[in-house]
Amino acid sequence: MASEQTLDSLLTEDRSFPPPPEFARQAHVSDPAIYEQAEADPEAYWARWAGELHWFRPWDQVLEWEPPFAKWFVGGTLNAAYNCLDRHLDGPRRTKTALLWEGEPGDRKSFTYEELHAEVCRAANALRKLGVGKGDRVAIYLPMIPEAAVAMLACARIGAAHSVVFGGFSSESLRDRINDAKARLLITADGGYRRGGIVPLKRAADEALTEQGGCPSIEHVLVVRRHVEGEAVGGAQMEDGRDLWWHDVVAGEGAEAPAEEMDAEDLLYILYTSGTTGKPKGIMHTTGGYLTQAYATTKWVFDLKEDDVYWCTADVGWVTGHSYLVYGPLANGATVLMYEGAPDAPDRGRFWKIIQDYKVTIFYTAPTAIRAFMKWGTEWPSRFDLSSLRLLGTVGEPINPEAWIWYHLNIGHERCPIVDTWWQTETGAIMITPLPGVTETVPGSATRTFPGIHADILTLQGDCIDAGGGFLAIRRPWPSMLRGIWGDPERFRDTYWSKWQGMTVAGDQPGEGVYFPGDGAKRDERGYFWVIGRIDDVLNVAGHRIGTMEVESALVDHPAVAEAAVVGKAHELKGQAVAAFVTLKDGLAPTDELKRELSEHVVRKIGAIARPDAILFAGDLPKTRSGKIMRRLLKDIAEGRALGDTTTLADPSVVARLKDDYESKGEG
Ligand code: WTA
Question: For residue 518, how far is its CA from the centre of ligand 1 (angstroms)?
Fold first, then answer.
């Protein structure tokens, strides 16, 4: 969580930006009355949105709510892939570009809606031949290539739930996710390009499938050939009987495949995300409500129009890639751009060159990326023609006002509204955001709830805070809300719905029905939300969620480590970085080599995104008299602040020693 100081500086932000009049004139929404209209009857409002999708059978009831379990569009049936593809084939969208793709080395592909439909059908037929069908799970471990979207939509078409695992996760993380979901099929690639190098995904997949018990549920592995060296990369081999090349099994299939009729509440996908324990949670999203809100928010938040070229830079491995690279924009019939690689490959102008080349009109990225662009300097964007842009977005972490203003001036050229969108893997779609034709924006604030969403700031006792800080709370079910944690219904209730359990919230609502996202936030005088960050043991490193417990478990898994405590420390570019305090087993010497080894160990266990920025060997960790590690103090040390209250500590001298060590070793 950000320090009080940052918080105060956020709230003294007084620059504000009304929607540019020419933007408001053409926007889908320019009348603020929409908020009251949605509020007057939220169910009718969401039903209107759902009515813009294609249903095989209409729903009987909009919402069934038995806290914390919600069902949306009860009795309705639809198919997500059908909504993203087939329903666009009747009119001019048939030959409209659905997907524009650029690989890091510069290779390009594009698909019309008709072509993407055919490709998805071929893949769906291939999956069916491999025995995958309704109710099965399929793991997808791919680079950012068109086949990632095709594979997701093919699963949706046949009613199999996908579980996409970010390509930056290690083989161990992949194995855990496959085993938790008991996936029957894994779809991967020989490799992908990243910053000039090759990420050897198939090799990692082979390790996942063969080491430490492997993945008994996997029957086949479909391997996309991303680059010509194929199996030579990193020694990955095709295993007879198990592994099949995607091009061998998909290309020969027919270009038509029936779309499975799915219940609105059938599982669409599982996506694992970090929580407060060592084990990631499989967040479950179902079909009807998820698609409705992904569709609605894409249309209004990005003011999406028929001739837009829409680019979301998120990887398909994260929820943003699910909702705003695949389902939301394709359900809207948009032209979506997908780019495989890094923003600085081959040089720091790559993103701006892409915007210029493809005449991108809507650009959605993360504050971490914006801070990197700032650091690289305006000379990069200024070399390119960015005049096609008309709207900018940001997501994943709080954006500092400086970065917001830089984005506004140097990318948006003071012409483009910026939508700062707050949401989570669990919420499935955007929850707090400006509407670009309506909302006056203030740098650093996600402003208001999307129409139809009800959020508040609450105290620990469940009282509403009209102006000031507290716990962010969602007080009404929303269509794209998670339906549970795969295989762990109790954890679902405990994690998200127990904060105000047994209390009366805001004077009249039973606390059981109030969702706690894990974020702290403030509200200013005009009612705008300022999301400050996680208040649980979850870090947000470069916009990626990492549980402190996950990193701690990875560290204590190393034979040299006795105990580990991990905290987030403020980082100029990444927002937060991982700082680890480690005590070694008796008799072991703290060396730089061991430090490097521990760092590599974390990368091997979780993935490079969890690599600690700083590791400090400690003789002892500061604990309360009841034995709890005092993370707050460790955070103070890691961030170089004066120490907070140490009176509850079992041994206050431990902390002073640690602080001295930390500072003298120059880790701060
Ligand atoms: C944080 C990403 C401030 C927040 C879509 C949330 C944000 C977590 C914002 C979810 C924002 C996301 N302003 N903080 N606009 N957007 N967050 O599940 O802490 O990867 O709980 O979903 O990111 O991260 P997740």
Answer: 10
As a whole number of angstroms, the distance between CA 520 and CA 30 comes to: 30
Token pair belonging to 492: 């679902």
Per-10-residue mean pLDDT of the chain, 668 residues long, equals: 47 84 97 97 98 98 97 98 98 97 97 98 98 98 98 98 97 97 97 92 96 97 83 70 96 97 98 89 98 98 98 98 98 98 97 98 98 97 98 96 96 98 98 98 98 98 95 98 96 96 96 97 96 92 94 96 94 95 94 96 96 93 85 87 70 79 64
Environment class of 587 (CB within 10 Å of its CB; exposed 0-12, middle 13-18, buried 19+): exposed
Instruction: Note whether 438 and 31 are within 8 A (CB).
Output: yes
Q: In sequence order, which residues have a C-beta less than 8 Å from that of residue 380 and are 6 or more positions away?
A: 347, 348, 349, 352, 373
- The pLDDT, as a whole number, for residue 652 is 73
Tell which residue, 176, 134, 141, 106, has the closest CA to residue 268. 134
Ligand 1 proximal residues by C-beta, below 6 Å? 273, 318-320, 395-398, 420-425, 446, 517-519, 531, 533-534, 540, 545
- Asked if 260 and 158 count as a contact pair (C-beta separation under 8 A), the reply is yes
Predicted TM-score (pTM) above 0.90:
yes
Question: Strand (E) positions, 515-628?
Answer: 519-523, 529-534, 538-541, 544-547, 561-571, 575-584, 614-617
Query: Where on the phi/psi map is residue 187: left (φ > 0), alpha (ψ -120 to 50), or beta?
Result: beta
Strand 575-584 with 544-547, pairing: unpaired
Show the tokens assigned to 365: 């990225």
Which among 424, 496, 535 is the best mutation to test ligand 1's pocket, defined by most ligand atoms within 8 Å of the CB?
Answer: 424
CA-to-CA distance for 103 and 226, rounded, in angstroms?
10
Q: Which residues contact 67 (CB under 8 A, 6 or more apart)?
A: 497, 510, 512, 513
Residue 397 Cα to ligand 1 midpoint, Å, equals: 5
Going from N- to C-terminal start, the domains of the chain cover 31-342
CA dihedral sign, ordered 362, 366, 370, 372: negative
* Percent of the chain's residues with pLDDT above 70: 95
Q: What is the CATH number of domain 31-342?
A: 3.40.50.12780
Question: How many angstroms separate the alpha carbon of residue 90 from the centre of ligand 1?
Answer: 37
